Amino acid sequence: MKIAIASGKGGTGKTTLSTNLAAYISETISNDSNGQVVLVDLDVEEPNSGLFIKGDILKDEYKYRATPVWDSNKCTLCGECKTICNFNAIAQLPNTILIFSELCHSCFACSELCPEQALPMVDKRMGVLKHYQQAGNLPNNDKLTFIESRLDIGEISAVPLIKQTIEYVEDNFSDEIIKIFDSPPGTSCPVIETIKDADFVILVTEPTPFGLHDLKLAVETVKELGREFAIVINRYGIGDNGVEQYCLENNIQIIGKIPNMRQAASLYSQGELLYDKIPAIKEQLVLIYQAINRINR
Amino acid sequence: MNIIFAVQNNDGWDSIISLKYGRAKGFFCYSQETDELTYYSNEENQNAGHGAGINAAQIAINQKASVVITGGSMGPKAFEVLNKANIKMFTQAGEVSVLVAYSNFKDNKYNQVLASDK
User: Fold this and answer.
1) pLDDT digits (tens, 9 = 90+) for B37-52
2) Scanning every residue of chain A, which has its alpha carbon at the shortest distance from the alpha carbon of B82?
3) Distance from CA of A89 to the nearest CA of B (A)
4) Number of A–B residue contacts, CB under 8 Å
5) What is the ipTM of this complex?
6) Hey, which CATH number is domain B2-106, 3.40.190.290, 3.30.420.130, 3.40.1700.10, 3.30.870.10?
7) Partner-chain residue, chosen from B52, B54, B85, that has the shortest CB–CB distance to A94
8) How many degrees, rounded to 5, is the angle at CA A72 between CA A68 and CA A73?
9) Residue span of the structural domain in which A93 resides
């Protein structure tokens, strides 16, 4: 089961919820010999789940994406590639084809449609995937696997790396295993890639007008993608009741309200998990996990 | 010689020079040989997600321009394409009319840009 933890607004608590929920679930399934939970940090532009979940590295592999390389010997400068490219990644100079690989979406159109086969696709490194086993800072560490991908500096698109990371997870872990995807913020392509095949999306928001504004955008996005979803309010107690009102009016389920606590911020700033130290937060994780199990059934 | 002016509106010689290049509203191409001033819209490119500068540079190349004039800046990708195509860039025009910019250019009041802004 794939659970994506997303938000509209950044900084609402996606990573806090992802890491604590994954750790909490690993604890509750500690007696289940087949039990396993996989936490995947898909916020590849700024992965930070790894600040809270540590473990022994099992695999460390480069990820590549294919971009076209110009073969000047074969090219007749017909200009077809430049016309086809939907991403403005190709310019045609009087005697040269110029390719901006950072703008390339690896769609293969120019390469496939080039009448002279003058644009072969060549792999280019875009980032690193790290697979950790037995997250070492947790009491029941053998149940939790952590995977994160990190985009190389200068790479413009997170989507291909997110896609390949999800493929890696699908290839290595069976469908019934709970996988928690720590999603990028916003509602743009990287988020779509993260949530489009999720079985359940948890939207984390904060109870403020800003949180509500971006929550509405996120709700529209998950609805458009036809995903099942629910809301978790983080830092509950600040702001106003606009988010609750909105959820009530639109029949959207709120499955958890994580209280706003100075202690939580303090632990977070030291890279600590919260649920094992703050009972009020653990209570909310219990409720969230119950909601997940209702969906999973 | 053909000269490209990045502009904010389509009003012939009275059009105002655009501060931006890749996302200018349009371009005028002036041919010194034929004394013709022709407008090319760039509105589709204005809202491009990425690569507006590359497309805009492509317009200059297609018009066989030797010179591009903008009011304030030149992005890194447009610079790279224009530079490779040996098209000279001048970005100090400010928001003056195309006529004034052309006159200033002829009087050598602008310095050629040799590196991009970013």
Assistant:
1) 999 999 988 888 788 9
2) A93
3) 6
4) 38
5) 0.81
6) 3.30.420.130
7) B85
8) 125
9) 70-119
